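Example 3.2
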Amino acid sequence: MKQFLRDFLSYNRRERNGAFVLLSLILLVILYLNVSPYFITPDKIDFSKEEKELQLFSDSVKAQTDSLKNEENQNRKFTNYPKENKSSELKGERFNFNPNQLPESEWKRMGLSDKQIYVIKHYESKGGKFRSKADVKKMYCIQEKLYQSLEPYIVIPEKKTDTVKSYVSDSKAPLPKPQPETVLVELNTADSLSLIKIKGIKGFYSKKIIEHRNELGGYAFKEQLMELWKFDKEKYDGVEKYITVDVSKIKKININTCTAKELKHPYLSWNAVNAIISYRTKHGKYANTEDIKKTDLVDDETYRKIAPYLSIE
């Protein structure tokens, strides 16, 4: 037995060394924890930003709480009216009255409580009006029995309507106004005086119409007026029936003989003009005006707009 205990409690050299190292590490850790505060200054963490945010949050919560309390107080003011004595509603005086803007004292004479009067005045303050007896009945503060006792005395004046004058005989009837004669104005030859005769065309637009006509070389379509500044579809629809376009008055440009300066046009970019002239120089005269699309700088939409102004002879 003694030998067994001796073998169980004894350590070999390797185990003693391990225990010594472990004990040493424990002592070093304990020593470090007790000595380190004297040599190492811990970093101070700035919580000022978080404190400000916390304060702002606290203030917002307080403001919401105060707001809710105020709202509750307002509601309490409304709901804390003394309970209505329904039996007393029918004991008030009865007289003819117009419920619109009726003074509070008159409502009280008829036996209405302060709460009922408050509801009626609140309705009127929001723009409410009593246009018929049924509108009075719709007020939730007025019970059916009370309404039945008030209904015979409600007087709401009818709105005055304009009387239509009737003429006894044709001799006294007003003569119809003569309709102005419709005048058609041709855009490519009209001057400013002619243009301002069109309803909706003032001096400003008469000048702009002529300026744009000179830039284009004449109008090919009425719709070209909508290319003017602030001349929208609504304005165009108002004048369209008063204008015509004579396409024979358009100034044509011969693309086989013109210079780049002569070919300059609002519908053609300067690059497109140079490309048309350059293509003619390299490939010879154009067989038809549509060949200018071979320059790749004139698309279908541009050609549709410029075609009325081009010729090959």
